[in-house]
Amino acid sequence: MELRHLRYFVTVAEELHFGKAAERLHIAQPPLSKQIKDLEKELGVSLFNRTNRKVELTLAGMLFLEEARKLQAQLEHAQNVARWAHRGEVGSLVLAFIGSANYDLIPLMKGYRKRFPKVDITLSQMLTPNQMEGLSKGTIDIGIMRPPSTNDELNFETIRREPWVAALPEGHPLLELGEPLPLYALKDMPIILYPRNLVGPRFYDAIMKLCYDAGFSPNIVYEAPEMQTTVALAASELGIALVPYSIQFLFNKGVVFRMLDDQTPSAEIGVAWRKEETSPLVHSFLSFCREVSVLQEVQNSHGMAWEEHEDKA
Question: Which structural domain range is residue 49 located in?
């Protein structure tokens, strides 16, 4: 039995007329009649009662029709699954992210899940070095991180750039300077940063360059691996934290954020993946991230949230 036999049988069963069924199938009637007879011979049963006036299903034909339709539906589903997999629209994706990416991650995931509801996503919070190791070992598929150090096995693509801000404890004298805050005003202030080897050399070096270009070397008094910890230390009046702009929407208890007067270079966040990656699912996710990156420019000027992208596309 071949798949075309099922298709021919179902069409005849629905039409109960060989001529109309043949027309619908775009074949001649005699070959269609022969195919149905061959099917009946193979099954060893009569599927139709044929007279000169009408065609009727036998009991065997009625029951076979139910099963044939189930098989057709299952086949169609299998074909769809193959197409979805080829387009990166179904499967499982393991994604790691840094804690400070929550502002980007939440709307990103909301929009992605809306676009690709058949993809199962496992999320895991990791520091940048752990993400790089996980990508190299194949335990994660995508990393959302600050710019990492150079790695011959991985690609990194920026999806968001944002200005730096200073997190100052409430009541700090520098708040009287208003906004933007002159970066040079931090010259003699205790600064809270992140360990270079944990947050990523490019990210750490960007902060250092910001200070050097303003004419001073920062007085780093504390280093913390997570940005929420640096903000908490600032809230405890232990220093001033330099953080990306979006952090103020995640952690703001006991601190006041001020834009800085120098915004070069900007803070970056992006996606990392293996250079030899062939998974359509991974590349589909990357394409979606690129759409989000372009949309971010629209959001900045029109206030449109990322998850609204589906409604605007």
Answer: 3-86
